[in-house]
């Protein structure tokens, strides 16, 4: 829900903290070679240029298992979390964030 993924702060230049939505990126039909080839686009936030990436914005997302092959666990900030299915929803303006003023 921010422009940062894995410390790369240019990952999604359109993301705003207070826009009430999340950006979803789906990597499809990829390979290690294609990922290496597209690394500059990932780092620079030019994912619209990558054929193997589908992008959508939403405020509610439900993820279910396609085939039942045991439990699939999700991760939150790298830590094991809930099993599928899950539902995520952005609750806009639910938390006040205080940030310092930028000095010019």
TrEMBL record:
Pfam families linked: YegS_C
Gene3D superfamilies: 2.60.200.40
Residue ranges annotated for the YegS/DAGK C-terminal domain, each copy included: 4-98
Name the record gives this protein: YegS/DAGK C-terminal domain-containing protein
Organism: Peptostreptococcus canis
């Amino acid at each position: 829900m921010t422009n940062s993924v894995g410390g790369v702060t240019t990952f999604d230049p359109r993301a705003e903290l207070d826009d009430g939505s999340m950006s979803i990126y789906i990597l499809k039909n990829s390979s290690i070679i294609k990922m290496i080839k597209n690394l500059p686009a990932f780092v620079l936030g030019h994912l619209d240029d990558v054929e193997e990436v589908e992008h959508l914005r939403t405020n509610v997302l439900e993820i279910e298992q396609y085939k039942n092959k045991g439990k699939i666990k999700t991760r939150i900030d790298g830590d094991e979390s809930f099993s599928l299915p899950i539902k995520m929803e952005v609750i806009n303006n639910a938390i006040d964030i205080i940030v310092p003023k930028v000095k010019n």
